[in-house]
C-alpha cells in the first residue's frame, strides 16, 4: 500500500488542522484535497492550465483531469507535454507539502511553478523520447509545441 492511501486513513488529533497549507484551514488532508481541491494547489493549477493552454474549469477531481477530451489538445505532442506537466505538478505539490510538514519550509506557488517547469522539461526531454524539445519551448507562455 502506498503512502498516499495510508495518509487518507490516518486519524487526526483533536483540534489539529490536517491540511498543512496555511491558507486552507480544512480539517482533512486527502489526496484529492491536497493535490487538487485545496486553495494553495489551486493557485498552482490555475497557472498550469494557462501555461498548457487548457480550460480546466469543469475539472472537479483528479480523475477528471486525465479525462480531458483529446479535442482540447492541438496535437499528440501537446497531449504528451501536458501529461508530463500534470504529473510534474502532482510531484511538485507533494514535495512542497512534505517540505512544509516535515522541514517547516514554506514555498510560494511561484517557487513550485519553477520546479514544475524544470521537472517537466527534464522528464519530457530525457524520459519522453523528445530530445528535440528545447528549454525555450517550455519557458513560453503558453508553452510552444514544436
Ligand atoms: Zn487544504
Fold and architecture overview:
- Helix 2 crosses helix 3 (about 40-50), helix 3 packs antiparallel against helix 5 (about 75-100) and helix 5 (about 75-100) crosses helix 6.
- This protein has helices spanning about 5-10, 30-35, 40-50, 60-65, 75-100, 110-125, 135-140.
- It starts with a helix and ends in a 7-residue tail after the last helix.
- The longest helix is centred in the middle third of the chain and has 27 residues, at about 75-100.
- By secondary structure, it is mainly alpha-helical.
- It has one domain.
- The protein is globular and about 45 Å long.
- The chain has seven helices and no strands.
- Helices cover about 55% and strands about 0% of the residues.
Largest sheet: none
Tell me the number of structural domains. 1
| Rg, Å, rounded | 16 Å
Structural class: mainly alpha
Distance between the termini: 40 Å
Write the layout of secondary structure elements.
Layout: H1 3-9, H2 31-37, H3 39-51, H4 62-65, H5 76-102, H6 109-127, H7 135-139
Bound molecules: zinc ion.
Features:
146 residues, globular, binds zinc ion, single chain, mainly alpha, 7 helices
Summed up, what is this model?
By secondary structure, this protein is mainly α. It has helices at 3-9, 31-37, 39-51, 62-65, 76-102, 109-127, 135-139.
Amino acid at each position: 500500500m502506498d503512502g498516499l492511501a495510508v495518509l487518507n486513513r490516518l486519524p487526526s488529533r483533536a483540534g489539529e488542522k490536517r491540511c498543512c497549507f496555511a491558507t486552507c484551514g480544512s480539517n482533512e488532508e486527502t489526496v484529492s484535497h491536497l493535490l487538487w481541491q485545496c486553495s494553495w494547489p489551486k493557485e498552482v493549477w490555475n497557472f498550469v492550465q494557462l501555461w498548457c493552454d487548457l480550460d480546466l474549469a469543469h475539472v472537479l477531481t483528479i480523475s477528471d483531469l486525465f479525462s480531458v477530451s483529446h479535442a482540447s489538445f492541438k496535437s499528440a505532442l501537446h497531449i504528451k507535454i501536458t501529461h508530463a506537466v500534470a504529473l510534474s505538478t502532482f510531484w511538485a505539490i507533494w514535495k512542497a507539502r512534505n517540505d512544509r510538514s516535515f522541514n517547516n519550509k514554506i514555498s510560494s506557488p511561484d517557487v513550485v511553478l519553477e520546479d514544475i517547469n524544470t521537472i517537466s522539461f527534464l522528464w519530457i526531454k530525457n524520459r519522453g523520447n523528445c530530445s528535440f524539445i528545447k528549454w525555450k519551448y517550455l519557458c513560453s507562455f503558453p508553452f510552444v509545441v514544436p
